[in-house]
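User: quick one, fold this
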Amino acid sequence: MLATLIPGLLLIQGCFSAVQPHDKTMKNLFAHTGACNTQHGRELDDPDYYASNSGMPHDPSSSGFMATHGTHRFLAMHEQTALLVGEGKHGVWRFQENGFIRIYRGVGREGIPPQKREGVRDLRKNVVIDDDMEDKESAWEINRLLIILERNYMPIDPNFDFDHQFGEEVFEPNGRNWLNWIDLPIYHARFGGKYKEHVPIDLPVYYCQMSSAEFPHMGATWHVMKAQPKANVIGPLGRRAGMDIRENFNDVIRFRLFDDAGFWANIGQGNPETDKMASTLEELKERAQTANWQRIDKDKIGWEVYVMERSYHNAKSTYLSLAFVMLDSSTPEREKEYTYIRPHGEYYNYLVEKGYEIKSTIPNNSPTVPIENETEVKEAYGLATYGHHHMARVKYGIGGGACPQKGGDVSIYPWGDAGGGWPTNYEEITPLCDAFLIDIKFWVNLDKQWTEPDMFLGNAGHDYRGQTAVMYQAQANWYGKYSDPYNVERGAKNPYELDMTEDHKIQEFPGEDEVVPVVNFTIDFGVVGEVEEYFNTEIDWTPRTCLADEIEDQDGPVESPVRNTNTAGIAAVSVYILAIVSFIWA
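Assistant:
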């Protein structure tokens, strides 16, 4: 058996050794280009090497996986189509953005004094100073503080070093008091006015983290996906949930569900006294919560599904999470039940001033949803546990295990005053842990839809771009002439018979010196062909987190701009954050 296997292995190795892409990115993302037995026919010095024989550009192919609590999700992209397949009935938590962006002070940079906080939170533009102004000094100070916000404070950014990750809100060295972070409304002048006409952020997001920090087993897959044309294109529900606020959401891609994937709601078993979550230790000991997940009728609600990359706090490490937004707008009352804006503070006041309709100022922590094969909507019940698959977190050393039961900063869950998400979330919009589930079976086109009639036509390749008519070549033969006795005896003639010969004879396999004529002919497509667009992006191939640690244990330190930090203190704090968040979400 070994003797027969070895030649096969050598053949496979030889096949792939013939592929010599120009650099590591091309080798990893385009390993299929030039592979043996693919009739590629192009040399490496061909400027269209990464294209088919008709000049159709090759698209990258990449795949990887991510996991938490030993449960895996597989992400892939082929032919500018993204696929995400994980487990069915994946539990989610709920959060809602509050219309603010938290920005953090950079390392060693001047900050905003605490006593100036209220004076800068509602700035909408620079103050224009003229000769007639009475209080020029105050105007100059406002503009100076705005410059500090613009230059020295940043939102979540993996390329920016911060003095604060966990710790005190106020920095107090050498008698100086500076805010380590400050929350600003989205219309603030710090963000250049790009959100001043943003729709009210009144819908919650249902989410769950799918990866560990920096998703080390994903390779380039997500990094290539998020550079493509359809990345960060947010739908109307996503905008109402604030998912287009790039300072809060690093990158987002909208997906579609496969036909058999859907959403599920825990509607209980029919007894409200046991269907609802227990709230005290005594009650948890006395009774079991009765759960029953049934499929939401997604034809009766609006919904949008996303994969989002987002940091916790201001850490450099990011995580991938699934997210969805849903809304029943069948009646004004039904829509009102799904929406909320806190009737307090700068963001609320701004919306009122602008004349926006605020549909509800009452938080709804007992949402109802339409269920398949049910005539009445049903209430969805959250759980006391972290999630319905998380009965053994303590056993496996992950820790925690209870639902945090309020919105806001997850902080150092399960310790302290932890919330279920981020510091720019409403506390009163509770997580409703696993009241809702989703089947992780998604796909999306990363560029154009394949339904367009001009896509992928034969005249779409590099050599024929802009042409409607293309010349084709074929070796001359008499194609399609019937030879089966049944058809010959009947005198049947093939209506699609094609005679390309001058002597009207079938061309047999040519001899060594025989020259077979080549026939040129033209096909006019009537339209200019189109191809998918691929956006190239720079990839850092350095192994990350646990993979880097494994290599370091074997070969010594791994040098990477992604892993470098300016000081040992920051590095230590980063490790602390990774440890905390891994503890939370593993």
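User: anything notable?
Assistant: The chain has 13 helices and 23 strands.
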